[in-house]
Each structure stands twice: as structure tokens, then as C-alpha cells.
Amino acid sequence: MNGTTALEVRGLSKRFAPRKGQTESPWILSDLSFSVADGELLTMVGPSGAGKTTLLNIICQVDAASGGEIVFRGETMQLGGALNPGLSCHIGYVTQDDNLLPWRTLIENVTFPLKVQGRLDAAALAHVSELMKTVNLAGFERYYPHEMSGGMRKRASLIRTLAYDPPIILMDEPFGAVDAQTRTQLQKDLLRLWNLGRKTIVFVTHDIGEAIALGDRVLVLSRSPSRVIAEHRISIPRPRDLSNFYALEGFADLYETVRKELL
Ligand SMILES: Nc1ncnc2c1ncn2[C@@H]1O[C@H](COP(=O)(O)OP(=O)(O)OP(=O)(O)O)[C@@H](O)[C@H]1O
Ligand SMILES: [Mg+2]
Prior knowledge:
Elements: E1 5-14, E2 29-37, E3 41-45, H1 52-59, E4 67-72, E5 75-76, E6 91-94, H2 106-116, H3 122-134, H4 150-163, E7 168-172, H5 180-197, E8 200-205, H6 208-214, E9 217-221, E10 228-233, H7 251-261
Helix pairs in contact: 2-4, 3-4, 4-5, 6-7
The protein binds adenosine-5'-triphosphate (ATP) and magnesium ion.
Magnesium ion is lined by residues 52-53, 96, 172.
């Protein structure tokens, strides 16, 4: 981390258009503000339905905000009018579902963004191959998504985003819906990958343990209408042994604090 702000969200609010027969729809996000430093792994924890996916969709320009401002690398984003999903490939998004293309092989899925961007050269392929090795996917290049386990698909979706190297990556509960052991392995993979390049990451989860074990800092979100209700710097030294979160120095106290904040 060099102290430069990568992303700043100021007073963000969101409500969806009212449904038929409704005059007003509820606020999902309300006056939500935070910032992320360059190279920081920021985690956000909030209950189901808090608006976490909605928040990431807005940052990634997949959805529009109702109010507020987002400044990305010093420039204020256009939040009204036409959206620019992924902000011209500057914002990577590992979505809650892996969204692999079922008719493409693993390697075709992972290299797809590079191909679309016209950047699939020898150097990019070498980088992809390195990433595949790091997460133990080497040898499975020709598998189709339906031939892969849930954990393999999650790893594929993770490196598909890392492969095209966006300066910031949003991750939406990327390790949900896998068993506990696979989840621990994925978390280890993520920290290993993050260590290679110290990318700026915003990692959203409803799992308090995961948020503390992975992050440099954790933000606690309220129930919808969501805003940031607490912020904690995580001073647990790195490298962290993720096999047993609870044994990490300072983990248990912070877990208890966040658990109470979420009540
Ligand atoms: N397109 C939409 N139209 C109307 N309401 C929506 C839409 N998308 C999300 N919502 C509502 O916004 C609220 C927040 O949803 P969101 O998916 O952002 O929550 P979340 O925090 O990601 O939950 P989870 O942890 O279960 O993934 C929910 O009440 C949901 O019904
Ligand atoms: Mg969600």
C-alpha cells in the first residue's frame, strides 16, 4: 500500500424503480461512504440482503446509483446516464456466481477477457499459465465448466479476472457455496495471488471470519438501507495461516466485536 486512494465512495444511495402498484420502493443503500487505498485488501461484511451486490454492481457500472459520488483514481465517475460496465476494463469483477461460459473450455474461459481486449499474446498466455499453476488448475485446460468441481470453477473465475490485470478487483462472496475445506484452500489461493501483485481488492462477504482473516481492513455494513457502521484495521501479521483462523493473534477479539456490531 502506498497510501494513494484508489477508490472513494461518497454518500452513495440506491433504490430500485418501484414495482407495479407500488408508489415508492425502499432505499437499499443510504449515505454509504468509504475509500480504498492502492494495494489494499479491503473486506466488507454485511448481512444477506444488505445491498452488497448492489453496491459492487454500482461501482462496476453494471447498475446506476440514485445519489452520491464515486471517485476512481482521482476521477469522478459518471453515475447517471449511460453506464460503462467495468469502466473500460479498469475494474475487475468476480461475481457471486462464477458465470463461466458453458460452451467454452477452462482455458478459453480464462483467456476470454484478454481475447476480447485484443491482448492475448505470448506474454499474456505465459501469465495465464502461471496463474493456472498457482491455483492448481494446470492440466485441466480443456475441461468444460460442467466437468469441473465447484471449487475449480471458483478458481477459474478468480484467475479469469486476474489474468487481464485490472488495477482494482471487486469480489462478491467469491467462495460461497463450496465446502469448508475447499473454501480454506480458495482463501489461501487468493492471498497467495494477492501477494504476487498486491492488487487493490474490495472483497465482500457475509462471513465475519473470512473478512478478518483476509483483509487489511474490514468495514461492517448495516442491514438495508446499508451504510458503513464500523471500520477496523486488521493488524494480524502476514503471512497468515488460514488453516485455523481462531489461532491468529488478535482474531478472536475482533471477531467478537464485529459479531456484536452485526446484531
Ligand atoms: N434488480 C433489482 N430490483 C429490485 N430490487 C432489487 C434488485 N436487485 C436487488 N434488489 C434488492 O436489493 C436488496 C439487496 O440485494 P443485494 O443482492 O444487493 O444483497 P446482498 O447483500 O448482496 O445479499 P446476499 O448476501 O444474499 O448476496 C434486496 O432486498 C433485493 O431484493
Ligand atoms: Mg450478494
